[in-house]
Amino acid sequence: MFRCPGQDQRFWKPEDIFEVNCSQCGGAVEFFKDEPKLKCRKCGHIVANPKIDLGCAEWCQYAEQCVGVSGAKNTNALRNGLIDEMKAVFGSDQKRIDHALAVLGYAESIQATEGADPLVVKAAAVLHDIGIHQAEKKHGSSAAKYQEIEGPPIAAKILKKHDVADEAVEHICKIIANHHSARDIDTIEFKCVWDADRLVNMPAEYGDASEGQIREAIEKAFKTDTGRKIAVEELIEAAGEEDPAECARNDH
Fold it and tell me: Which residues neighbour 222 within 8 Å (Cβ) at sequence distance 6 or greater?
């Protein structure tokens, strides 16, 4: 059976497997290019892949010969450009940068299955928290409440700088303006970013919850079948697997 060369590891280059330093302890975490996030073996911190590349058609280097997709390189360049803009806004705030990249990784996975507009999903995922620092300056401890207001103007300026079409800018900014409240948008692109954000945040929120409580929360919180499926796999099924290190200790 034919296998896309962008997905086939036989076509990968040495730089497609690389190490990233954990922002918590500085330990080395080895990534394959298509892994959105991994747990640091040294301290347990979740590390986002800053060079995530799923090999998907919308930006894969083989996209045109594989499925005839045009503009793939432009989409990839835009994605990377927005990541650079996000990092410039957040500066030394590595926690915010890691969060945005983790949300991006999940959003890309969900979008690929749900069939949403890749440009809107990627851009909204990268920029969804872009107003948090401005909100903190103006509103202090109430920043979370106001970042949906502060974020869209900053995002719009960045997107227009990169020549994103007005219609897409409006859609992306509306997602950013609703990514906590979900007041007045229900597009599939919004749902992808919403679920990606929930996937990143839920482990900390439900660390001590029972399986029943987690299942109930997943059912209520998620808006796509793909997001719900990933949540069950990562928050319930993976948590139910016995730790190999614990198994080794129990054998003695």
Answer: 195, 198, 228, 231
Bridge partner residues of 233 (DSSP): none
Whole-number Å distance between alpha carbons of 176 and 97: 16
Question: What is the distance between the alpha carbons of residues 15 and 13, in angstroms, rounded to a whole number?
Answer: 5
For 22, 27, 92, 120, 130, the CA distances from 35, given in Å and listed in that order, are 15, 18, 24, 21, 24
- The closest alpha carbon to 46, from 183, 176, 168, 202, belongs to 202
Query: What's the rounded Cα separation, in Å, for the pair 128 and 191?
Result: 13
Looking up tokens 């995002």, which residue turns up? Answer: 155
Nearest to 185 by CA among 99, 113, 116: 116
Which parts of 147-226 are beta strand (E)? none
All domains in the chain, ordered by first residue:
70-238 (1.10.3210.10)
Encode pLDDT of 23-40 as tens digits. Answer: 778 889 998 877 777 888
What one-letter code names the amino acid at 52?
A: I
What CA–CA distances, in Å, run from 230 to 37, 69, 167, 182, 236? 13, 27, 30, 21, 10
Q: What is the dihedral of CA 69, 75, 80, 85, to 10 degrees?
A: -170
Reported as a single tens digit per residue, the pLDDT across 89-138 is 999 999 999 999 999 999 999 998 888 888 999 999 999 999 999 999 98
